[in-house]
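Tokens as discussed.
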């Protein structure tokens, strides 16, 4: 059994524990602001965060802006991406009164945790991380010190607030494992300061994009939450399908058709096969019209709430979140330095 299967097997019990005792959990999760958020993010992670918040779990959402430069030269439109993500969070139902939304670059004490944490891992362990290896290959560049060590930085993201529950996708599981190792080693060497956080793996299946591959901005196959209804229609119309008028759900042989069916299915909470049956032999044009209507209807309220929010609103939310995160990080850094005997 691989570690993902093992982790997935633990999820039902973990979910039951969260439902029973939400007050025992502190969630830290977030993303790398490399682009606009899309439907894949919504169903993969954002919806889960809103559920946890609603269940009464103390929730922190990090915009990991330093992580943007792990595999590229510059941070690009990072501020725009951060503001846009905050606006999507608010439109999706995250409440900044109860959920702390912040950027890790704005929290110096969080970043300082990186120093003692780096002493707790070996170079060989860093090189072994399968996600880092995959990202290195995909980047086609030389390995930067930041790419090699970012899982340790991510441990600081999680442990600064003593988070004990980390909702992540499968590709981030090695980082949660490393966070547990760092917490354990710190506690063994210096005394109990940190919890060993658990990963919460989302049960939503990965949403394919309009070409059937994983939905991703870099593939140009994404429906961004901030698109207008017309932009959405245009993106869906552009999807590559085939000439077979009988619509069937066959991701292997008909990726474009399958991507459309999966998208319509997820926004309607139905199955792709059901929708394929309903379209019958009406062809890909009819499937596109159906998908456009389904997606635009699903996003209507999100977009209306989004349109009422401005970058200034996002900036105000971040200022508060950064301040709250900073106060907590400063306390944790004080615990760390005193555990290490570095108080003067
Ligand atoms: N690496 C995460 C991603 O790929 C983003 C992230 C940064 C994160 N810090 C985190 C996720 C801490 C969970 C916890 O999207």
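Sequence:
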């Amino acid at each position: 059994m691989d570690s993902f299967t093992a982790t997935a097997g633990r999820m039902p019990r973990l979910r039951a524990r969260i439902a029973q005792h939400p007050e025992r959990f502190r969630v830290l999760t977030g993303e790398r602001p490399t682009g606009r958020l899309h439907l894949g993010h919504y169903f993969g992670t954002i919806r889960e965060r809103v559920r946890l918040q609603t269940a009464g779990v103390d929730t922190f959402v990090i915009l990991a802006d330093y992580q943007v430069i792990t595999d590229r030269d510059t941070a690009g439109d990072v501020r725009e991406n951060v503001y846009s993500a905050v606006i999507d969070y608010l439109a999706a139902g995250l409440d900044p009164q109860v959920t702390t939304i912040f950027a890790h670059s704005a929290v110096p004490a969080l970043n300082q945790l990186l120093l003692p944490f780096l002493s707790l891992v070996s170079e060989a362990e860093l090189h072994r991380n399968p996600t880092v290896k995959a990202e290195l290959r995909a980047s086609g560049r030389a390995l930067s010190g930041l790419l090699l060590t970012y899982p340790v930085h991510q441990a600081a993201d999680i442990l600064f607030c003593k988070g004990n529950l980390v909702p992540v996708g499968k590709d981030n599981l090695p980082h949660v494992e490393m966070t547990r190792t760092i917490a354990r080693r710190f506690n063994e060497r210096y005394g109990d300061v940190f919890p060993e956080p658990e990963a919460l793996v989302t049960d939503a299946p990965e949403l394919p994009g309009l070409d059937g591959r994983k939905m991703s901005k870099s593939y140009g196959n994404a429906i961004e939450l901030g698109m207008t209804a017309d932009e959405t229609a245009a993106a869906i119309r552009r999807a590559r399908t085939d000439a077979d008028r009988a619509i069937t759900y066959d991701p292997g042989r008909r990726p474009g058709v399958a991507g459309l069916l999966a998208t319509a299915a997820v926004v309607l909470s139905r199955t792709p096969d059901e929708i394929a049956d309903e379209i019958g032999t009406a062809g890909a044009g009819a499937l596109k019209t159906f998908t456009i209507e389904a997606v635009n209807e699903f996003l209507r309220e999100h977009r209306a709430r989004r349109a009422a929010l401005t970058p200034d609103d996002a900036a105000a939310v971040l200022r508060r979140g950064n301040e709250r995160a900073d106060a907590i990080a400063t306390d944790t850094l004080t615990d760390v330095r005193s555990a290490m005997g570095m108080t003067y």
